[in-house]
Design goal:
9 helices; globular
């Protein structure tokens, strides 16, 4: 085998780092871009949790903060006015278990994405949460239940779909290894035993 053939096949051997991979020659611009996407997406969820929990006066006023007795999911669920989940979501508005699930989801997604750990679990749980939120807005509907136009900007892809795709891409590309704790997380005995926790 010639030196040229040897160098061409080296990248194909199992366990050999690919050119430009995080484990080979350091983070590439694409690796850094994926890490930035992961962190930015995490901040979206982390901020939603913090603002609803403490009422910083942006989307949530201080008097409506969770720590002051507010119901973080009630406003969203109570305002659903169309789509197949309307009656279910309206009935759930104000239920304590829904508030806890919603807030735990926002906190968990935010922390995992910013830290770069558990991205596979995050992608699955986050996508499921985004499906529920997407169903609440139900972009395919042209009219609300009272007949008024929904003014939906896109009947299929909205920000919930984009967030879900961002989480899936972050997990698929192991984006937690750059600017995150992904490498340390992957070395934990529990994660080595159960790779789906990565």
């Amino acid at each position: 085998m010639t030196a040229q053939e040897s160098s061409l096949t080296a990248g194909a051997r199992p366990g050999t780092p690919k050119a430009g991979s995080v484990t080979g020659s350091g983070p590439t611009p694409a690796d850094r871009a994926l890490a930035a996407l992961r962190i930015a997406t995490g901040i979206v969820f982390l901020w939603a949790f913090l603002d609803k929990a403490f009422g910083f006066g942006y989307a949530t006023s201080s008097e409506n903060a969770w720590i002051n007795g507010g119901q973080p999911a009630a406003g969203y669920l109570g305002s659903v006015a169309g789509g197949p989940m309307e009656s279910t979501y309206n009935a759930w508005a104000g239920d304590v278990w829904v508030d806890w699930m919603y807030m735990a989801g926002m906190l968990g997604l935010g922390l995992a994405l910013v830290a770069g750990i558990g991205l596979r679990v995050t992608a699955v749980a986050g996508t499921l949460m985004m499906v529920f939120l997407w169903a609440g807005e139900f972009p395919p509907a042209k009219h609300l239940s009272d007949g008024t136009p929904t003014m939906s900007a896109n009947p299929v892809v909205d920000h919930h779909v984009v967030y879900a795709v961002a989480m899936i891409v972050a997990a698929a590309c192991s984006a937690g290894r750059v600017w995150g704790l992904g490498r340390a997380w992957e070395r934990l005995p529990l994660v080595r035993r159960f790779p789906w926790l990565r």
